[in-house]
Write a structure and sequence with these properties.
two-stranded antiparallel sheet; 690 residues; mainly alpha; two-stranded antiparallel ribbon; 29 helices
């Protein structure tokens, strides 16, 4: 991609192809270099009348910097010039600079005035008489003028040699940031002129930052086009961010996460008044611009896309030719695969493969369009592939982009509604647990809404209740289905004590049903539960103080883990909540030998095992930093090495552990001590039963 100029989609064919119907058939694109924002027209600028401000109003223009110093009479005494810390009028400064910029001979004088004014100009606190619209208008014209190549060349000549290479010291960037930081909104064409100038100077990252300082409600088509191309100019390319803009383009409003509590408060809504007139044709043009820009220097993806589209076009042509073939119709009656059926089957397999390839290249929107173009030509592999596409796309979108996450969640539910309990997705199918894992994971991380504070829990339980009603036992005991359900419950395990107890009971209701089903299965189909899920269950017990369910977990660890595999080493993160539960609920006597057992150095025992201390808190999170700041806690992890651990850990931190003061202590862990603590704690829970 030519980084020296942001080009326009106006270089695409004058007659664009029909909308998404023939979207995959391949099109050529022009590669002209047409700037988005033309240079400002001097005639247009001259139409505006500017009032000259008195030069004496600018105290920053001292005699050393004044281009035309006034001679002083030798017969008169002049007191020394003192700086008056009086704020100058932004309108006066703007008019003074703009008037001189319009005069070719006074451009240098205007730049001198502007450079001096920037040192003291405070635009954040304006006098009541100053009109914010007037300030925006005058400074938009100044900034557009500074972006003009002729004036920009003069500015560069006036810039000291040691600062020419640093854009942050340029008068354009200093003035631009001064206006933006003061809360004023520049006119869109002036804003885009700054962005284009930064691109011309090879400052693509800075240009992208400048683009997003324009409030989103002010964005029009040119802004979206510029922003999409800027994301593709970054290194590495920001493909997901560009696709997010494609999704936002044309929406009457956007939703962003509430910065106060992004996971617990409803999102904020931003109106987009300039998007009300956007048509489907406009959206298609932006999509084609994105594809053309992306294919310029991505040879692998371009080759894969063009190869797929060529094969697809060939298959569609062949299927149309065979549509009314009577011989094929006769053979189909005897379940004989005809050439038409063979082409259709291979075309479906090619579509599924392309969805997977596009997903791996972060081409989520393209992959979704491939799925939509398949229509009814799907097979048993399609549901799992498309649902995984939705989950991967959803997971990679930042939490703040609520609108884009909601789009992919809506798509995931449409896939679930279409394929669940259909001929293409059987409960015994190997892909079925993965299909449910992905939709449940999306439900677990769905944004909160004001009408339903427990929307995550409601959505996840609707899927679980369906599986229960239909008696899909194989799915009800699959850990890929259980894990996101436990995550959902951990997210909701906060608030009132009644809600915490209710969540704990629901989690063990799911686990008890799983264990009941497993007991009916042949022995070779049973397997140990992941430590991550056991850890999550222990946290629920610790949060609710439920001794009955705590005893169930200890019994499982003792009989199904420790006794069946004596060489097994439990992760120390599991022992931390067990120790805390013991100290708080089952044996809170200070005389108990096992009080704080794992967090104390035990002579002889720890000497023989060469036990080294580990920094860990009561919930089982490791940390090398004593900082208890909330942002630091989000980086905590356990020492459980399983694929499910990151999701369980995040659910604990954002749910059950939210608001808890987790203090790091030194744990002296050994397998011998772990087994002794589990046996002791289990014996206490049994002795406390009535």
């Amino acid at each position: 991609m030519d980084r020296n100029r942001i080009w326009s989609y106006e270089t695409t064919p004058t007659k664009p192809p029909p909308l998404f119907g023939s979207f995959f058939e391949g099109w050529s694109f022009g590669k002209g270099d047409i700037p988005l924002t033309p240079p400002p027209d001097d005639d247009e600028l001259l139409e505006e009348e500017f009032v000259d401000a008195d030069d004496t109003s600018f105290s920053s223009r001292t005699s050393s910097t004044d281009l035309h110093p006034h001679p002083q009479s030798s017969n008169s005494y002049s007191p020394p010039v003192t700086y008056q810390p009086r704020r100058k009028s932004s309108i006066q400064v703007g008019n003074q600079v703009m008037t001189k910029l319009l005069q070719e001979d006074n451009v240098k004088s205007a730049i001198e005035i502007l450079q001096q004014a920037l040192n003291h100009l405070d635009m954040a606190q304006q006098e009541e008489a100053e009109d914010k619209y007037a300030i925006s208008k005058i400074y938009s014209k100044i900034i557009k003028s500074l972006c003009d190549p002729t004036i920009s060349k003069i500015v560069d000549e006036m810039t000291p040699g040691d600062r020419k290479s640093d854009i942050h010291h340029s008068v354009l960037w200093r003035l631009f940031t001064k206006v933006v930081e003061s809360g004023h909104v520049l006119q869109t064409d002036a804003h885009l002129a700054v962005v284009n100038t930064l691109v011309d100077k090879g400052q693509e990252p800075l240009a992208l930052q400048a683009m997003y300082t324009l409030p989103r409600k002010e964005w029009d088509t040119s802004c979206y086009r510029t922003a999409v191309l800027l994301h593709l100019m970054q290194h590495p390319k920001q493909i997901i961010e560009a696709q997010k803009l494609l999704s936002d383009y044309g929406k009457p409003y956007l939703e962003i996460a509430n910065p106060t509590a992004p996971n617990d408060l409803p999102p904020l809504r931003i109106a987009m008044p300039l998007m009300t007139e956007i048509t489907e044709n406009d959206q298609f043009k932006l999509w084609m611009l994105y594809q053309a820009a992306l294919s310029r220097d991505n040879d692998y993806w371009t080759h894969e896309m063009q190869t797929f589209e060529a094969k697809r076009k060939e298959a569609l042509t062949l299927l149309e030719e065979k549509e009314n073939d009577t011989i094929d119709w006769a053979l189909e009656q005897f379940n004989i695969e005809t050439e038409k059926l063979k082409v259709d089957r291979k075309s479906t397999e090619s579509d599924n493969t392309m969805i997977y390839i596009a997903m791996n290249n972060n081409q989520f929107e393209y992959a979704w369009q491939v799925y939509l173009a398949m229509a009814d030509a799907v097979n048993e592999s399609t549901p799992c592939i498309v649902m995984h596409l939705c989950w991967v796309a959803f997971r990679q979108i930042p939490i703040a982009d609520v609108s884009y996450r909601t789009d992919w969640e809506t798509r995931a539910w449409s896939v679930y509604s279409r394929f669940m309990c259909s001929e293409y997705l059987h409960p015994d199918q190997p892909e079925a647990p993965s299909f449910l894992h992905d939709i449940l994971s999306i439900a677990t991380h769905t944004p909160e809404v004001s009408v339903d504070k427990k929307t995550r829990y409601t959505k996840a339980m609707s899927i679980y209740n369906l599986l229960s009603r239909l008696h899909f036992d194989k799915l009800l005991c699959d850990d890929r289905v259980i894990e996101p359900l436990i995550c959902t419950i951990l997210y909701e395990c906060k608030g009132t004590p009644m809600n915490i107890v209710s969540m704990c009971q629901k989690a063990f209701e799911i686990i008890d049903r799983k264990n009941e089903i497993v007991q009916r299965l042949p022995f070779d189909q049973t397997k140990q539960a992941p430590y991550s899920i056991i850890w999550g269950l222990l946290i629920l017990c610790l949060k609710s103080g439920d001794e009955t369910h705590f005893q169930k977990v200890l019994t499982y660890l003792l009989h199904n883990v420790l006794e069946t595999n004596r060489a097994c080493t439990l992760p120390s993160s599991i022992l931390a909540p067990i120790q805390e539960f013991h100290d708080l609920y089952t044996c809170n006597r200070k005389t108990c030998y096992f009080q704080g057992y794992m967090f104390r150095y035990i002579r002889y025992t720890d000497d023989l095992d060469n036990t080294l201390p580990i920094d860990m808190n009561a919930f089982g999170f490791l940390s090398d930093d004593k900082n208890e700041d909330y942002n630091q806690q989000l980086l905590w992890r356990s020492n459980i090495r399983e694929p499910q651990e990151p999701d369980i850990a995040m659910a604990i931190l954002m749910g059950a552990a939210l608001g808890e003061k987790l203090v790091q202590k030194q744990m002296y862990f050994s397998t011998k001590k772990a087994k002794a603590l589990i046996r002791h704690a289990r014996s206490l829970t049994f002795s406390s039963d009535p």
